[in-house]
Amino acid sequence: MTNRKHGWTVAIESFRRKGELLHGWGTLRGSGEIPCEVWLETGVPVSRGPRGIRATLGKAERSAQQDEASVDFVLYGSLADIGQNPVFLCLLLEWRDGRQQRLQLPPPHHALAGRGVARITALPWKHYFSRGLRLIRQGQTGLLLRKFFGMAHATITSGWHPVRFLKWATAEGKPLALVIDHDLGGGANLYRQAHVAQLAADGFTPLLLSVHHGILSYQVTVKRGARARTTNIDDLETLFGLLSQARIDRVVFNNILSFPEPLVLVRELSSWLQQTKPTQFLFLVHDYYCICPVWLLLDHTGRYCGIPDAVVCSDCLRCNTAPFLEFAAGADIAVWRSVWGGLLNCANEIRCFSEASRKLLLRAYPHLDSNCISVLPHQIKHARLRPIKLADPGWPVIAVIGHLAYHKGGKFVQDLADQILRTGDDARIVVVGTIDYALPASIATVTGTYRPEQLPDILERHSVNIGLFPSICPETFSYVAEEMMMMEIPVVAFDIGAPGERVARYRRGCVLPPSSAEVVLDHIRRHYLEHTGRAGNWLSDY
Asked: Which of 155, 264, 274, 340 has the greatest number of C-beta atoms within 10 Å?
């Protein structure tokens, strides 16, 4: 369905709901500046919770003439007061200058409960076929075949009845291990995959509890060797009824970001753990969701909050626009931490990946048993990186590595590039990866996606001589920061979270408080001169 108004259009590929939970995706097209925010709203005032569901926007693409733009978006969240049959749903587009535009949407399809053929036929197949045609036109037949095989395999192995599923999972007589995790990708998922493999090697049959956003359902998946089976479960009562029928010796809590009703799930899980008493319950601190619904600890102004007092937190939660915040609608920070504190107290081990995370956890929960909290940094095993030869063209060539969204410092890197352009400084930026913000081509180069083992060659090819780690949130660990240190690059970073902790101990590291682009550029110059630079125009500044 396409809706046109004032030059902007919205094409909806899929739009589904189950109660207050909605999921959909599509494409916005128009001319001029890209909207900075997009929200899904109802036509009635919201009496509780956030204003609506904030859409996640993809990277904008422009036509060859630069006059038309398109950007993909995904909607996923809970919309309070939506009603059984909402009269009016719309996308609210907002621009930085305050302009707004509303585009009416069709009513969402109701996601079917149950399993088998009914569930399969309800899937958004139109999207799969349109995506397949695009891949064919692009000549990516290999990728198309892999996606088709994966889709077919998922269709065949999913939708088992819970009782039949549990019988198949326990057929080998091995002890069961429950692993709870989202499926959003990123470092937490990589850690989970390695942990699941280790559990299997230790003689367990791992069960993975996750959420399937597309069908708005909980999913439990089990693998026995190369074979996998999945059961879709629509409510928590059925889910924990299933888990209570199995003997689960180990439970690993990896992450539940994007799970609907997180507080209800945490309460039910805490109660189930107290009743079943598994041999081990391991809680992994991959982010700070257990401390605040805003799991990155960025306040409503987009800055690291430092975990202030509860009054400040309450004011922030009313104004914050972090993704998935609507799932915590109606919960103040005291309730949030009380419920999560009950789960943390059930753990045999709470594993942090940095001392910085441990300190933040104890700041939020000062009465936790510190003997249960371990610090075990990640080990980088996915790539063997060598020290690089630092080039020196006479000015800093600044490497920024990874995908740079806002919290990863994408907006800050844009500000830094604008500062260099505005002042005419002799400095360049090389983004090894991708960035969500436009950069001036005369100042910055964006290389695109990469494999970790390619990093030394890419950095040397672009004459890099200093690294910047611009993340503005307290990351629990950073593979990128570790990789830069492994390649012996001088690194500048903010003194927050695990990266600040690690870079501060690095012989070529420089940490500073979150600062303006002007201040950071000055530190980059000094750090470049100390570790790489030769005498030249820079010396006149000192």
From this structure: 340
